């Protein structure tokens, strides 16, 4: 893929700001309209005045650096292939995006649920309800006992911010304010506050001297919205128009926000689930990033809102309901017809990303059975 990286246009920064405090405290019609426009045209925003202290963001990036500097054996002990819920560590080159191995190390965490056993895999094979396996337990390296509480505290802060942003989004799109938060109802045992599903990734991109190399291949995210913390080494790019990539420069104390497939389907393509990718750092320093995916209930389903606002999208690819359905149908290889099932969608992504996980192997075997 190294020779396939097209030219990146220089500045200006194409990512508009989302000022959380201003939009919550004194939202003007102009500011809400500008937000709707940004969701529609760019699909990436820089979140400022969000109330999460800069130390909290720096701390989660430090946690990423600490995890990946553990001994390789410590990391392998919590390898993702030892999890039936796709939680844990993966080496450089083990995760696949768009059929191509990424050039990064990964440590995946979710909301903590009771562990999933082999019996649940057999049951999933019998019923086809594979996505339920994703609601399982995390794996934590024994040598980093403080990691779990740090990460859980960060996830809680990010979930709260994500839900606040969804309320602002609904206001910007003239929808009932609880429209987007309505798919956050399921709660793991003992967590009355932690609704929906959630995924957090600690990522380390090794430096790559010489020709640019893809760290993560182009993709759109699968869920509702993503809040990304990065260190000050750049590399994230957005596909602003087909084949035209622009850098998203890092800025301390802010989050990069982007929208996933569910919001794109739900708004009939009005909110963009923009393609993005990461170019490996060309310096001698690795790059660390922490995307947090604010995901809905695993059993939530999505069909386009019946709203004249979303019937046609000026300035963007025109998506009428039929075209949106067709595009989404194609995107998911025909795996759904009437509605997009979040659980099926994210499960399919896990299988594609980690085809050597035992659950992926079991799923593949079940597809081959008559
Ligand atoms: O590392 C980044 O900056 C982005 C990673 C990403 O796009 C993802 O994990 O979905
Ligand atoms: Fe992404």
Automatic annotation (TrEMBL):
* Keywords in alphabetical order: Iron, Metal-binding, Oxidoreductase
GO molecular-function terms, A-Z: metal ion binding; oxidoreductase activity
Q: What is this protein called?
A: Iron/ascorbate-dependent oxidoreductase
> What InterPro entries does this protein's entry cite?
DIOX_N (IPR026992), IPNS-like_FE2OG_OXY (IPR044861), IPNS-like_sf (IPR027443), Iron_ascorbate_oxido_reductase (IPR050231), Oxoglu/Fe-dep_dioxygenase_dom (IPR005123)
Organism lineage string: Eukaryota, Apusozoa, Apusomonadida, Apusomonadidae, Thecamonas
Q: Does the keyword Oxidoreductase apply?
A: yes
Q: Report the superkingdom from the record.
A: Eukaryota
Query: Where does the Fe2OG dioxygenase domain start and stop, copy by copy?
Result: 196-296
Q: Which family does it belong to?
A: Belongs to the iron/ascorbate-dependent oxidoreductase family.
């Amino acid at each position: 893929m190294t020779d396939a990286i097209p030219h990146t246009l220089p500045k200006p920064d194409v990512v508009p700001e989302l000022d959380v405090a201003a939009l919550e405290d004194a939202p003007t019609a102009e500011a809400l309209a500008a937000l709707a426009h940004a969701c529609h045209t760019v699909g990436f925003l820089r979140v400022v005045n969000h109330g999460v202290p800069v130390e909290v963001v720096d701390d989660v990036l430090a946690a990423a650096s600490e995890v990946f500097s553990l001994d390789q054996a410590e990391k392998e002990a919590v390898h993702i292939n030892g999890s039936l819920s796709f939680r844990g560590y993966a080496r450089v080159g083990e995760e696949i995006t768009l059929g191509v191995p990424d050039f990064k190390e990964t440590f995946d965490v979710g909301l903590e649920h009771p562990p999933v056993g082999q019996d649940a895999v057999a049951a999933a094979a019998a019923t086809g309800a594979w996505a339920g396996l994703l609601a399982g337990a995390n794996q934590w390296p024994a040598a980093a006992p403080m990691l779990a509480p740090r990460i859980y505290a960060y996830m809680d802060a990010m979930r709260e911010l994500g839900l606040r942003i969804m309320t602002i989004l609904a206001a910007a799109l003239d929808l009932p304010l609880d429209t987007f938060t309505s798919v956050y109802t399921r709660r793991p045992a003992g967590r009355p506050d932690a609704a929906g599903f959630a995924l957090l990734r600690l990522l380390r991109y090794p430096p790559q001297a010489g020709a640019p190399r893809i760290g993560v291949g182009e993709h759109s995210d699968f869920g509702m919205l993503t809040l990304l913390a990065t260190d000050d080494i750049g590399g994230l790019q957005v596909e602003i128009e087909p084949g035209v990539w622009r850098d998203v420069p890092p800025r301390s104390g802010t989050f990069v926000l982007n929208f996933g497939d569910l919001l794109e389907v739900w708004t009939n393509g009005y909110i963009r689930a923009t393609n993005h990718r990461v170019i490996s750092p060309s310096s001698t320093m690795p790059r660390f990033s922490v995307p947090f995916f604010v995901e809905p209930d695993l059993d939530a389903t999505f069909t386009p809102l019946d709203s004249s606002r979303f019937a046609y999208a000026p300035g963007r690819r025109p998506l009428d309901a039929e075209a949106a359905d067709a595009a989404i149908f194609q995107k998911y290889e025909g795996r759904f017809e009437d509605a997009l099932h979040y659980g099926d969608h994210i499960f399919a992504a896990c299988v594609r990303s980690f085809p050597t996980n035992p659950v992926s192997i079991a799923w593949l075997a079940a597809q081959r059975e008559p």
